[in-house]
Amino acid sequence: MADLGKWPAMVVLGDKITEEQANEVLIRTMAREYFDMTNDHEWAATVREIFGKEDDYSLRNATFEERLALMRRNDALLDELGILRLEYLYNSRIASSYIGGPHGWLDWNGNISGNKPYNIGKWPDEGSILDEWTLIAETFPFLSLTAQYYSESPSEPGGELDFVFEVTVKDGSASVTDGVEFEEDDINYGAVTEEDIFKMVSDPYRERGVTEARLRTAVSQVRKSRGL
Questions:
Q1: Global pTM value
Q2: How many CB atoms lie under 10 A from the CB of residue 22?
Q3: Alpha-helix residue ranges (DSSP H) falling in the chain
Q4: Residue 88 gets which letter from DSSP?
Q5: How many Cβ atoms are within 10 Å of 99's Cβ, its own excluded?
Q6: Is the per-residue pLDDT at 180 higher than 80?
Q7: Dist. CA 29–CA 82, nearest whole Å
Q8: What digits encode the pLDDT tens for the residues 74-124?
Q9: 74, 33 in Cβ contact below 8 A?
Q10: Which one, of 81, 79, 74, lies nearest residue 26 by Cα?
Q11: Residues 115, 214, 120, 38: is their CA dihedral positive or negative?
C-alpha cells in the first residue's frame, strides 16, 4: 500500500457532466455530518429546512436518549436520499467554513474541477480511497475522471509535489494505477493572497456554495429519482 502521510492532497481532472447529473452527484456525495455546518447561521437553517433535517443544536437540555433518537432520524433521512457514506472523497459545495470556502472535486456547473489541491483528511490509506472511488463509480457510472494523490499539499506554484499514485474512474469502476503525474499547468495552485483573505473574512456569504433556488431544485430532483 502507498504511504500517503498525514495530510495528503488530491487533484482531480475529468470529463464535464450535465448540471442534472451534477445535482445528483453533489447531493449524494455531500459530507453527511458537515453539509450544514457553517458560521452562516441563516444559511444553515435554510439548508436544514430544504433537506428536512432536524436541528440537532436545539437539544442542549435534551436527554441522551432524545439526542440519540434525533440523530437516528436525521441519519435515516440521509439514507433515504441515498447520501453515500464517504470519509475522504465527499464534496463540500453546499456550505463550508473551510478557509477556501465551499470546495470539492465537482462543481455545480458539472465541471470535474478539483484541480486545486486540498487535503482530504488525516491518515487515509490507498485501500480506503479506492473503496470510496469504487462506491462513487458504481453509483454514478457516467463519471470519467482521474484522481491523483500527493504526500503534501502544495501552497504555491513550484511547491514540492510528492506524487504517490492515481485512481482512474470510468464505466462504473475504479482502479489504482501508477499513472503519469499531471503537468504543472494542469494544477491550479491558487495561492491565497492578503487580498483574498480580506475578501473571505469580509464577505458574509462566503461559506455558501450554491443558491437557495438551485439547492431546492437539486434536492427535489434527488427525491424524485429516489421515489420519495
A1: 0.87
A2: 22
A3: 19-28, 41-51, 64-80, 126-139, 194-202, 212-225
A4: S
A5: 12
A6: no
A7: 9
A8: 999 999 999 999 999 999 999 988 777 888 999 999 999 765 667 788 889
A9: no
A10: 81
A11: positive
